[in-house]
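**Fold tokens**
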Amino acid sequence: MKDEESAIRLAAVQETKEANQDDLLTMPNVVGVGVGYKKSKGKETSTLCVHVYVEKKLDKKELAPDAIIPPNLDDVKTDVLEIGRVEALAFKSRVRPARPGYSIGHYKVTAGTFGCLVRDVCNPCHTYILSNNHILANSNAARKGDPILQPGKYDGGTYPADLVARLDRFVPIRFNQSKRYNLVDAALAKPVSLRKVIASVVSLGIPKGTVEATLGMNVVKSGRTTGTTAGKVIGIDATIAVNFGVGIAYFHNQTLTTDMSEGGDSGSLLMSRTDRKATGLLFAGSRKVTVHNNISNVLMSLGVEIITA
């Protein structure tokens, strides 16, 4: 009975929050609205209330009358909490368990992005981290067993403190051969412990399968540098010349989206926005477009499948 009453009360507070949040968010200094327990004299009580988050908590004397948060909304109490300015965070920190979307890289590479977890088709007990060759295998220069750090070296990762996996295999990239196309920039790393990784992509959740990219498809990704961004597919079956610094590589059957990345986002998993299905592996871009491998080519080349919800 108590649980039922609590659920009913929570629903009522949520309804009040929904009914008033648009007006609250237009008030000066307000940066958010939520539901939580009211604090009294610095201690949390058991009273559910509408939290009103402000950048800086001010004395009522410093506020105009229309900037004062009412103590009650209908029969629900409010509580004003100072949380500062909320800004987008890049995913560059050390996290354990390590998760897709965060900084990762070969110990000799600056940093890229942990794409997702996959498993071997022939031996499903074998789980791997998927990202780009140029992130996990140092553009063909690495050897099996090399340390993979999370976060990547550029973000403060050091060996052995931040060792999260070891390079297992990669698809070699052919450089400076205009008549021999690449399909993927992809590699796998074997976690040193499955307890140190999870499958849920930060901000997006566990992929729900795969889907072929189509023109106009709305897509999302979470990456080390720009965080979670949205875009649209503007090109399919594209052949692109990509400058890796160590040479030019030509890629066939690629997916182009609107610009949704910066350096360090390489390795991010591209997902359909509506149903969160994997459709590409981000690996390159310019100031106007982002380029992704077709996810089907990535999985077939490495003999793996995505671990799904």
Notes: The longest strand covers residues 227-243. DSSP finds three helices and 18 strands in the chain. The radius of gyration is 23 Å.
